[in-house]
Amino acid sequence: MSLKPLTASFIMISLLGYMTMISNAFPGRAEEREKIKSIQLPAPSAEGKMSLEAAIEKRRSRRRFEDKALRLAQISQILWAAQGITEKGGIKRAAPSAGALYPLEIYLVVRKVEGLEAGVYHYNPAKHTIDLILKGNYQNPLARACLGQMFIADAPVCIVITAEYERTTVKYGRRGIRYVHMEAGHAGQNICLQVVSLGLGTVSVGAFQDEEVSRVLNLPKAHRPLYVFPIGYPGDWKV
Ligand SMILES: Cc1cc2nc3c(=O)[nH]c(=O)nc-3n(C[C@H](O)[C@H](O)[C@H](O)COP(=O)(O)O)c2cc1C
User: If you measure from the C-alpha of residue 203 to the centroid of ligand 1, how many angstroms do you get, rounded to a whole number?
Assistant: First the structure.
């Protein structure tokens, strides 16, 4: 028995609608998703206004932030300090990595940055670009996932350091886990000192529910969150 053209197209349209509904309800993880767009960051500078010694001395955990937008040049500088390529024509980065295997992946959660829409971005060190993977304000759910440390929601941006352990454990076995954590510390300290030298403030946040942070940011399964850095102009302190 053949279907009438009208009935067949009705079934097709219903099927398409159902499939769209299902894919919206269960969006793929970031690795399976198209990036919405890619933004080229301005070139970072290798010269700053503050000495390394002064940045070390001035670094303090900051948990109050002014409601003031950051500039793209500041974002570029901080991401470069975290994981930027520092070897001309090569692959080596701002922070050391066991076996140069580079297990860290950096995410940027934007609330208020001049010229950037709010959302979750993924940093690409090779191109020095950020890829928008989720649109919207994710700072509030991120703060809740960090055990309700709500100062995180007030920061204009947050950097989330994640790691794909397998890149390192495939060579170093169980000891690779230790190496990955050491590397997150290296990148985290670079972020802290770069932030201070730009006249900004941050605090290293390690208290959060891993699964909740992964869910909120829709992280690929292999990218495990290790460290969160809310960044902004410090509310109670100025350089
Ligand atoms: C691994 C690690 C995890 C931390 N987690 C948090 C956190 O979840 N929330 C927070 O407010 N501070 C956190 N801190 C910041 C410490 O409280 C802070 O570094 C400490 O009080 C020393 O103060 P200082 O950073 O100003 O020198 C963390 C620091 C480290 C090193």
Answer: 6
